[in-house]
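We treat protein structure as text, and this decision shapes the records that our systems exchange. Because each token names a local backbone shape, the row as a whole describes the fold. An entry from our holdings is shown next, in its original layout:
>
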Amino acid sequence: MGDPNTKNDLDIRDELAFGQTYMALTRTFLAFCRTALGFLASGAGLIILQSYHPLVVVGYVCIILSIAVLIYGVWYCRKAKKKIEKIMKNEKTLTGKTD
């Protein structure tokens, strides 16, 4: 018949896959934060120049973009985390595992 370790191996693989997914989600969130920080720094630098008016406008646009990117990043990562947790909960329910 089948190998008795197969079910246990699949459980371990599933747990490792979920762990990797969480780490990837963390990297994604940090990338959003890094992008927002870049827009913020660029906007502040352009506003400090103030000698050329169109650059000041672009600076304010960059600051607004930084806020928008950060808000979107938080929203996206929260949504993805909830989806992952829902899948993990369903997986544990189907296999009968409890933590």
In short: DSSP finds two helices and no strands in the chain. Helices lie at 6-49, 53-95. Residues 6-49 form the longest helix (44 residues).
